[in-house]
Design goal:
There is one protein chain. This protein has 450 residues and is α+β, with helices and mostly antiparallel strands. The protein has 2 domains: 1-212 and 351-442, Rossmann fold, CATH 3.40.50; 215-339, no CATH class. The chain is built from 10 helices and 21 strands. The chain has helices at 56-71, 156-168, 177-180, 194-206, 225-237, 252-258, 261-275, 327-340, 359-372, 427-432, and strands at 2-8, 17-20, 34-37, 40-43, 45-49, 94-102, 105-114, 119-128, 134-141, 147-148, 207-210, 217-219, 242-250, 283-288, 293-298, 305-313, 319-321, 346-350, 378-383, 400-405, 411-415. A hairpin with a 2-residue loop joins strand 6 (94-102) and strand 7 (105-114).
């Protein structure tokens, strides 16, 4: 689960800025949104409001950027992502840090980059303790080999293996040590080095990020009669007109016709890399684009079996393709995985949560998310303009956040909890009236006849 994210000198964030999931002592309502891990509590939600171009999507991009850097490398386009509000920022390091929990342990992982050069200036991983102390797992500074913490008690086998990895580590300007330690490396179950694997997997898989321009997502998801019935009932709950969801067989040719060439090629590469993996040569994958929805069941050495969604509306004689549904219905299929997933320790991060959804439908979705994941270690962080859900019966005050752009076009994040409000206060009305900031401020304009 996420504890906090910190960013500095990235996009519209000029100074060190953080979003945290730590409950406030002042807010005592909706205690079921506090999830306990040992003696520490973390919040279940963060609903983030702000005007257009305030920096909400930039905050989501912080998570995307960190995930991409850890999974692959520092992207080429990173060279222009420093905060451009001041000329000096091009020569200033940018900082990124995630604090999170895995298996009841708390970690802080981060790195600083010189974005203009796409070079790693420093990288660190600490285990955090609830008394405020920390243990260094590794640190790295530019031009030097990574250093493992002295307090890390390793077996002779692990120590020898690690020394070999460090000796073989080649200083590369755009690769992270955490990434390299997960390329072709295997760790025994009881190895003290497993933190490299655990931290990497949480960042890559534990954060599920959904944005409006995400063209393709994949979920390992098995369809059977029980799950199809469950999906059908969920879709009917949202009053979309759909009464039944079925899966029907299709062909590779149809899949190729439905998808843009780059996405189709990406699918083929995904199948090839997964089936060639010794760990999981057989798998089932759900792949979705804006207008298409396909299941692929793959076995090593065999042609993939492909199926797609067929949707029935009421008593209609005909069935409907996924692409024939409304934007709002297709959006529900984007989000429904959050209701079906049972993977704990997952944080869902969604940009423009309300896109194409009726306010009542969005409210219902959050209600169902609450029910589906009651007492589970799962979080939902999302940006939105929908003020109707800004309700103290739905969210705690410390779960409502604002992003505001100042006169220098830099973004600042703050929580509703900084304001003293009665619990019967109509928050949405006060927000639209400008009490909390983070709303558009218009200049005057007049039309004239020529």
């Amino acid at each position: 689960m996420l504890v906090k994210v910190i960013v500095d000198n990235f996009l519209s964030f000029e100074k060190a800025t953080e979003l945290n999931m730590i409950p406030s002592n002042k807010t005592r309502k909706i205690i079921e949104h506090k999830i306990s891990i040992k003696s520490t509590s973390l919040l279940k939600y963060a609903a983030i409001y702000g005007a257009n171009a305030s920096g909400k999507s930039n905050l989501i991009e912080v998570f995307q950027f960190m995930q991409y850097c850890v999974k692959k490398a520092i992207p080429i386009e990173a060279s222009s992502k420093f905060c451009k509000t001041k000329e000096a920022n091009i020569n200033r390091s940018s900082l990124f840090e995630l604090q999170f929990t895995i298996n009841d342990k708390f970690y802080a992982y981060g790195f600083s980059l010189m974005l203009k050069d796409r070079s790693v200036e420093a990288e660190w991983l600490y285990e955090l303790y609830q008394n405020g102390s920390q243990k260094t797992l590794f640190e790295r500074v530019k031009g030097e080999k990574p250093v493992i913490g002295e307090a890390l008690s390793l077996s002779a086998t692990d120590r020898a293996r690690l020394n070999t990895y460090i000796d073989d580590f080649e200083e590369t300007s755009n690769s992270l040590f955490l990434t390299v330690m997960n390329r072709g490396k295997k760790y025994d179950y009881d190895s003290k080095l497993r933190f490299f694997l655990d931290v990497y997997q949480w960042i890559v898989r534990g954060m599920t990020i959904v944005t409006p321009n995400t063209s393709l997502r994949s979920f390992e998801y098995y369809y059977d009669d029980v799950s199809l019935s469950h999906i059908s009932n969920l879709i009917k709950t949202f009053d979309t007109g759909i009464t039944q969801v079925n899966i029907v067989n299709t062909t590779m040719e149809e899949l190729q016709q439905e998808l843009p060439a780059p996405i189709f090629d990406d699918i083929l590469n995904t199948i090839k890399s997964k089936t060639e993996s010794e760990d999981n040569p057989n798998f089932k994958l759900t792949m979705r684009s804006e207008y298409s929805y396909f299941n692929l069941e793959c076995e090593k050495g065999k042609e993939p079996r492909i199926s797609t969604i067929s949707l029935k509306h009421g008593k209609s004689f005909y069935t409907f393709k996924y692409r024939e549904e409304s934007d709002g219905t297709r959006r529900l299929f984007d989000l429904i995985d959050m209701l079906l997933s049972k993977s704990e320790h997952t944080v869902y991060i969604v940009d423009e949560m309300e896109r194409s959804l009726h306010p009542k439908l969005l409210s219902k979705f959050i209600e169902l998310f609450d029910q589906a994941h009651e007492n589970q270690r799962m979080q939902l962080i999302f940006t939105t303009h929908e003020s109707s859900i800004m309700d103290q019966n739905m969210f705690r005050r410390d779960e409502i956040w604002f992003v505001e752009r100042d006169k220098n076009n830099t973004s600042h994040i703050y929580s509703l909890d900084k304001f003293k409000e009665r619990y019967d206060k109509k928050l949405s009305k006060a927000y639209l009236e400008g009490r909390y900031g983070a709303i558009p401020v218009f200049t005057s304009f007049s039309f004239r006849e020529e």
